[in-house]
Amino acid sequence: MKINLDKTIRAMAVALDLAEISSVKNATIIEDISNINFSKHNYLNHSKRTTYIALKLGEYFNLSEITMQKLYITALLHDIGAANFLKESHISNTFVLEHCKKGSEIIEDFPVYSNISPLILFHHENYDGSGPMELLGDDIPFESQLIRLSDLVELLYSENSPSHIQKDKIISWVKSNVNSIFSPKLVDAFLSIAETDIFWFDIENISFMDFILDNISPRLNISLNLCQFEKIAYILASIIDNKSAFTAKHSRGIAKLAFMVSKHLGYSEEKCLEMKIAGLLHDIGKLAIPNSILDKNGSLTEDEFSIIKSHVYYTKVILDRIEDIREISDWASNHHEKLDGTGYPRKLDAGKLSEECRIMGVCDIYQALTEDRPYRNGLNQDKAFAILDGMVFDGLICGDAFNKLKETLKENMKL
């Protein structure tokens, strides 16, 4: 299987933007600069708009093709370290420092372009040395400087107001921070591209016109193999599981179960790996759910449960952006469907649920029952089996898939 790198990175960027939206709902402080309140910002298109601005600056400086590729990937993923800290509210300095460090560490495991790690580490540095790492002037990687300006301009921009009303205020703010946050040549570059109407029209419309970013993006003629994509899946699974105390190691646990059952069924090595990846990514949509709901130690209200149910919708929205993994997307996003059509989000019934979807659903329930949660200890295997037997009896889950899980676990215990 070959998986498009560009589509994969775009999907990751969507997931990170959804995570930032949920963190704002949970009152996480992102950063406080010049008394500007970023907590009300709409982050849905943050990565996309930041990347567009960075690439326009890169064009102005006539950067090389490989540098533009690194800039493109780094800008899309610049906040990859933030999601691991969304479960808590932080003072700004601590948050910024830690998310830069964590993002740099995470991206080192990226199967390609691992040399972008320093660019993420220093993307919050200020030209005058007042940033979290205290790098000064041109000691800051140039790509990091471009992303710094692009990030802040995007945060200043409001989707609730036409661009022509706010552009003068944004331009004025950038000019006022020359030699403090930004270098003089970077400010000059921004003023040059900001003179054109098309720049602001693109900023305004990029949220629903993907071709705007497509037209300026460097071509990444790279396909990932399944093993490389697995590394990315592990990166995302770590972010998902670290978002909430309720989900620690949950995705990895399901991935292991799905892989073992697939091996027991005699699936091909490639398909077994695909099932593992589906397990790793099945809860990626939880990045869009506020921690106030995920971590609630008590019964959910009807409204809260409706929000929780949306996580599988977001899982499919994110994964469907990677056109090469349609089956993995289905297996991952159908794990809350039930044979009688009472599941969610699509109310699929037995006739529309594949064997792989049924296995994923059973693995998810078993893993959830047997793992420790902050409000209870995990159930032992017999109690978990009893609950699953009841669900089979009620026509909710597949008896054959459940039997295969039991056989796999018993077989594994003998090893």
Automatic annotation (TrEMBL):
SUPFAM superfamilies given in the database record: HD-domain/PDEase-like
Matching InterPro entries: HD/PDEase_dom, HD_domain, HD_GYP_dom
Lineage of the organism: Bacteria, Bacillati, Bacillota, Clostridia, Eubacteriales
Gene3D superfamilies: Hypothetical protein af1432 (1.10.3210.10)
Name by which UniProt lists this protein: HD domain-containing protein
Pfam families xref list: HD, HD_5
SMART domains: HDc
HD-GYP domain residues: 225-415
